[in-house]
Amino acid sequence: MILDYLPQILFLIVLIAAILFFAKNVSSLKRNISLGREVERNDQKNKRFKKMMRVALGQSKMVTRPIAGILHIIVYLGFVIINIEVLEIIIDGVLGTHRIFGFLGPVYNVLIGTFEILALLVLLSVIIFWLRRNVMNIKRFLANELKGWPKNDANYILYFEVVLMVLFLTMNAADLELQLQGAQHYASEAGIVGSFPVSQYMLPLFDGMSIDTLIIIERTAWWFHIVGILIFLNYLYYSKHLHILLAFPNVYFSNLDAMGKFKNLDAVTKEVKLMMDPNADPFAEPEADGEEDIPEKFGASDVQDLNWFQLLSAYTCTECGRCTAECPANQTGKKLSPRKIMMDTRDRLEEIGSDLNKGKEITSDNQLLDNYITREELWACTTCNACVDACPVGIDPLSIIMDMRQYLVMEQSAAPVELNNAMTNIENNAAPWPYNQQDRLNWAKE
Amino acid sequence: MSDNLKVPTMASYLAEGKQPEVLFWVGCAGSFDDRAKKITKAFVKILNNINVDFAVLGTEEGCTGDPAKRAGNEFLFQMQAMTNIEVLNAYEVKKIVTACPHCFNTIKNEYPALGGKYEVIHHTQFLKQLLNEGRLKVEGGKYKGKKITFHDPCYLGRANGEYEAPRDLLRKLEVELVEMKSCKSKGLCCGAGGAQMFKDAEKGDKEVNIHRTEQAVEVKPEVIAAGCPFCNTMMTDGVKNKEKQDEIEVLDVVEMIANADDL
């Protein structure tokens, strides 16, 4: 009878639809990231892999803030490990089986028991996270850039997790009750399948319920749980929560050099070498292929001028604000917030992405500079690298600030007046102050 | 001060056909800023005292380009860099020591790709090397038992991972080393980096150097030890702003070593 297979067919349709929708989002994500300029981040594969294992998988930077760090590790472990159970749920859904991994016997009991304990710990952690965000006045969650959607987004994610964990435990509790009552399809001759250290305490809730009612509860919880997970998967692209996937590539491709080393622009090197070469002919025709080496513009005024790693980072950022909390400019009340630099970059990139989705040309009315990030923010940075060091997933907001300063100075000559004076001094007398280079050794005679 | 410093130049070494053990890169602040010149001299006194064979570029030295690069002027930076590299390479310089973390970082990290490859070390690292080799002796002297806090320069610490060399020297001085709330990899900037030294700060609640000085004052030190001429200026201004200049001195680590030895 086809009707017997209806739930399985329905589940397959939902599953395939969710996967297709997710694939569509992944392809927009890849398209948007590839709008960025090229940058070499495929070298030293071994070192990159180790860093990814340590920082992304091992969460090594999370625990510098111990409370948030440990809570995060619980939720992270819960997420990763409970996903093993999702695999069983999906197979059961497709094949119409009941706890197909049950044949693992004692191992299975340990697994299900672990999932339940983790689910409870995740539930508690998420509640603490919610309190930290909404009740306790923690400065990094009160910043201007979090008002509106970012705050709601963060809360939706927490609500999602609460609902998923409650559904998971309800499903298990109803399942246990059904097994205890010897319900067909649920009960096994081998005894109780799985162990239920947490959900067993929910059994009194089902007192006096018929098997039919219990099946409805169990099935409802099962369906809402798995559909919830599929919705959550597809919510990622629209939320700050993409870091659960992108933290890994972002750490892998992150900068491995000393933080103080800023990249040199090759196009400038060629120009300067030519200027300093006494044998160069100033009236020589430019080489036929020479023109292409010079970028269209120096620095960045919009997201396409940034490199793909910076754009990947914009999607990876989960807006935790550890960067901003460490920023000396932000701590002293300046407008600069490294977190906002990343959020603005993503918002602008999404704006361009939605233009592209509609098949439009990229509108040039808006750009990252001025429309999103103000000059006041850019000039407040001391380049101290505290934000870069603080990021648990290898994001470098400073590199974006530097690229945008480069645009302001090299394309627009729009540096603050005092800085122009200092630079003129460097040009004229090789020091940022107006002292003669010939006096450079006077200190030795004073 | 009767200084009688011996400060040979690379030009004079070349004329004699000699090569010094190390080139001392003085930097703009170390050459021109009145406060920073004292640091330069303290360092030279130590080098003279233990007969380290060094030379300076003197009038052939020019800004490394650090403030220009961090202000966004890549062109000016590379002009400065290439000019300096030409000079350094002409003298076949192998090893450079500098008392400025900004010069240190730029020459060490940003010059190699432009053709300037040298061993570059910060003066605190160099002094530690000399100490390890037994060429320099550091003893407690006047700072013994005194409460000292070290302010990490961003471009020595976070930017290049050196937190211990200056602290090791301070420990050799037998001081009571106390750490501020933000230190080492979490060290708070003095507010001068990224060319901020040469411009007014953006609007905010307070200046970064005041904020940092407050952290230092909290641990009640007798000396705030620094390892950067710009940090030194910022912290000195901060201490004055807090009217603590009679209780708290701001000194470079190298000045403390020179003072301890009565140089």
From TrEMBL, chain A:
Chain ranges passing through the membrane: 6-23, 67-91, 111-131, 156-174, 220-238
Pfam family of the protein (one): Fer4_9
Molecular function per GO: 4 iron, 4 sulfur cluster binding; metal ion binding; oxidoreductase activity
One GO CC annotation: plasma membrane
Domain of life, per lineage: Bacteria
PROSITE patterns in alphabetical order: 4FE4S_FER_1, 4FE4S_FER_2
Domain 4Fe-4S ferredoxin-type: 308-339, 371-401
Keywords: 4Fe-4S, Iron, Iron-sulfur, Membrane, Metal-binding, Oxidoreductase, Transmembrane, Transmembrane helix
The protein, known as: 4Fe-4S ferredoxin-type domain-containing protein
Organism: Psychroflexus sediminis
From TrEMBL, chain B:
A GO term for molecular function: oxidoreductase activity
Residue ranges of every copy of the Cysteine-rich domain listed in the record: 22-108, 148-235
Pfam families: CCG
Keywords: 4Fe-4S, Iron, Iron-sulfur, Metal-binding, Oxidoreductase
GO cellular component, one term: plasma membrane
InterPro entries: Cys_rich_dom (IPR004017), HdrC_iron-sulfur_subunit (IPR051460)
Full protein name: Cysteine-rich domain-containing protein
Annotated organism of origin: Psychroflexus sediminis
